[in-house]
Amino acid sequence: MKSSRVARPRIGVPVRLSSSDTPDARVGEANQLFTYIVDLLREAGAVPVLLTPVSADSAGRLATEMQTLDGVLLPGGGDISPRLYGQDPDDSLYDVNPEQDHLDMDVARATIDAGLPLLGVCRGHQLLNVLYGGTLIQDMAPSAVNHNGLDPHHPEAGEWAWHDVLLTAGSKTAGLYGSPDGSTIKIASGHHQAVSRVGEGLQVTAVADDGTVEALEDPSRWVVSVQWHPEASQLPDAERLLPFRNFVDVCRNPTHGPSAGVQ
What is the pTM of this model? Predict the structure, then answer.
């Protein structure tokens, strides 16, 4: 754990490995969101560090890489292989990439072992739940809340579904939004999967009106994840930057403490 305040913290972001040239437009959209996240981290005062399979090709190499970082952000992307949480895949899955799963899992585990702050977004949220032993809903059933975007009844909403989530007072998640007492915020949602069984040691810190788990965190270390997309370009600039700026500030002030690791 670093002992002094860092002016421009170095924040690792595992790269997306699927090509935007695929016929599935969702892959290109996820890659664009990755670019937004890198840009927002930079705007928030961090130095983004792209983590590749080469930088994570062994536990020793990755542990060394972690010594140069002040935090890690796990971005969105394709679906995680259900075999990682003990299920057979169904036909709803898209862009399942074992190499991406391997990279993201290794980076997440090494970050926790190093005691660094870790923020997961969308796929990153789901991956952290799986890492902690949780499971996912492979394809969500329709509910009172539209989570998938492209609502035919509200085409003006664009690619996102916009709905409220309730933040838990006193949570790290609420702190990212400058709301330590908790509040309801409107978020950009675009996912067909969600947390089913919550991983051991994680706490739910935001929910949608239909009960969908929208955020998780580990109370024993600075590990937080959100199901929504704070990087969505349709958000007002200040609102969009706020959670990234607050995460960068967490990484800038090394008071998050050591970690016992996650198996």
Answer: 0.91
